[in-house]
Each structure stands twice: as C-alpha cells, then as structure tokens.
Amino acid sequence: MTALAQSIARVFPANSLRSNIARHVLLFAVAVLFVAVLRASYGLDLSAGFF
C-alpha cells in the first residue's frame, strides 16, 4: 500500500491544484472499483477448496 501511495505522489506533484484534483478523482475511482468488486463477489464461494 505504501508503494502505491508513493507512486501516486510521484506522478502528481503536490503544488498544483489540477494535479491535486486529479489525484483525488483517481483515488475515488479506485475506491469505487474496489467496492464494485466486493459487491460482485458477494455470495460467491471464494474459499481455498473452491480453487
């Protein structure tokens, strides 16, 4: 997780308002995608025996 945060910080410089907004939009999109994956996998048998 730290590597992801550091790579995002390198891509978007901290002194620009436009890059600050872009960073927040990117993080929001990642959070939405994560929640969508969790909702899609709800009720599936993802135990080790399934694989």
Could you walk me through the main structural features you see in this protein, from its secondary elements to its overall organization?
The chain is mainly alpha-helical and 51 residues long. Helix content is 67%, strand content 0%. It contains 2 helices and no strands. The longest helix has 24 residues, at 17-40. The two termini are 26 Å apart. 0% of the residues are buried. The model has no long low-confidence stretch (mean pLDDT 81).
Secondary-structure map:
Blueprint: H1 2-11, H2 17-40
Record keyword descriptors for this entry:
mainly alpha, 51 residues, 2 helices, single chain
What's this model, at a glance?
The chain has helices spanning 2-11, 17-40. Helices cover 67% and strands 0% of the residues.
Low-confidence stretches: none
Q: What letter string, H or E per element, gives the SSE order?
A: HH
Radius of gyration: 16 Å
Outline: elongated
* Assembly level: single chain
Overall mean pLDDT stands at 81
The largest sheet is: none
